[in-house]
Specification:
alpha/beta, Rossmann fold, 5-stranded parallel β-sheet, 9 helices
Length: 218
């Protein structure tokens, strides 16, 4: 039983860390340098900070003048951090990019820099609707040793920032009834077992998740 003056520990399962949480890196990332002709592209689609890192394998002058549709504020900040310009920012999951792209002319040529496995099929749906979207697989993620071997207390607050972080956690862990679960968005929530209740962060950022966790921890 937790002492009334003792705070619940916060465990963050993410590639990003936070000073107020126990950070468990959930994924190991391998980058690929696919053959890309940036001259044949109008706009980029970026759905993670790993996609931004993958871009940096190419000569900067090839892509830096291409505006990017970014899935979240964090991804947008990562692209701006290397000198890129953001066309528009989504709400943290792929389905919102589907709605965003529907507002642009079908003649626009998009390049979706993606992982080997993705949680949303928004690009395929858009192509079926007549939009020009090319996909380039530029990285893959695998469950990290850190998350597979993590020792997590039965009483704790757990934050998951992607569907893959949930799936990796479940490979070697089960949820305890006394654990509180926070997820960064609805797509991540769907990766949880049906019997596990979670709190969905109002904003798709680690900081937003942490604000909820700190309130629960006290």
């Amino acid at each position: 039983m937790k002492n009334s003056t003792q705070k619940l520990p916060i465990y963050l399962f993410s590639v990003s860390s936070h000073p107020d949480a126990v950070h468990i890196n959930s994924l190991s990332v391998t980058f690929f340098k696919s053959d890309i002709n940036f001259n044949d592209v109008d706009y980029l689609i970026l759905t993670s900070k790993q996609a931004v890192k993958a871009l940096q394998q190419y000569p900067k002058e090839n892509y830096i003048d291409k505006k990017a549709l970014c899935i979240s504020k964090a991804t947008a900040a990562a692209y701006e951090g290397i000198g890129g310009k953001v066309l528009q920012t989504g709400k943290g999951y792929g389905d919102t990019l589907y709605e965003a792209i529907k507002h642009y002319p079908k003649k626009i040529k998009w390049l979706y820099l993606r992982a080997e496995k993705v949680a949303s099929d928004f690009a395929e749906k858009l192509r079926e609707d007549g939009y020009k979207i090319t996909e380039a697989v530029v990285y893959k993620t695998e469950c990290s040793k850190d998350i597979l071997e993590a020792r997590v207390p039965s009483e704790a607050i757990l934050i998951f920032t992607s569907p893959s972080s949930v799936k990796c956690y479940l490979q070697s862990h089960v949820f305890s009834p006394s654990q509180k679960v926070i997820v960064i968005g609805s797509t991540t929530a769907k990766a949880l077992p049906e019997n596990i209740k979670s709190i969905i962060s109002p904003a798709t950022t680690v900081e937003s998740c942490m604000q909820i966790a700190k309130k629960l921890s006290n």
